[in-house]
């Protein structure tokens, strides 16, 4: 990766991380409610019966409530588990499922571990991001787990990244390893950014 792109990404991530840490608890609660409403509408519109999502950290737009309600509605939700080799394993979310601290201190499910290909048959992927560009490029947090997952899928379903409203940007620094997303979900809106990924 050219150093300039690497440096731009690092600086942007640091800025976004600092902004997220400054959000009030009430702003986080409101964001979580908005994300649940937007994701509920998205899965209804797409007719989702199986999907991937993730368990948000305390500084991310909250997904826990959405996951809990999706499971209660009968949607099969796969949650990621980080591996040391840079790939993701998956576990099926269950009502009142246990959560443990994963490889990087992220909240991850406890349960039967399914391999990386378990995600190949979902209807939609909902993934975290630091920011998303209006052209569909996603800025992650630099470990490459989701880029590897998306890049390895033979037939990738729609992919929506979850960010705060202020993190939908005109332009995102990117390189050949970065994978685009179909759309973005914020607390107030869901945007389709590219009709298909491939």
From TrEMBL:
Superkingdom as given in the UniProt entry: Bacteria
Biased amino acid composition, Polar residues: 185-198
Name by which UniProt lists this protein: 5-formyltetrahydrofolate cyclo-ligase
InterPro entries xref list: FTHF_cligase, FTHF_cligase-like_sf, NagB/RpiA_transferase-like
Region (Disordered): 173-198
Family in the record: Belongs to the 5-formyltetrahydrofolate cyclo-ligase family.
EC top class named in words: ligase
Organism, scientific name: Microbacterium aoyamense
EC number: 6.3.3.2
Keywords of the record: ATP-binding, Magnesium, Metal-binding, Nucleotide-binding
Cofactor: Mg(2+)
Reactions accelerated catalytically: (6S)-5-formyl-5,6,7,8-tetrahydrofolate + ATP = (6R)-5,10-methenyltetrahydrofolate + ADP + phosphate
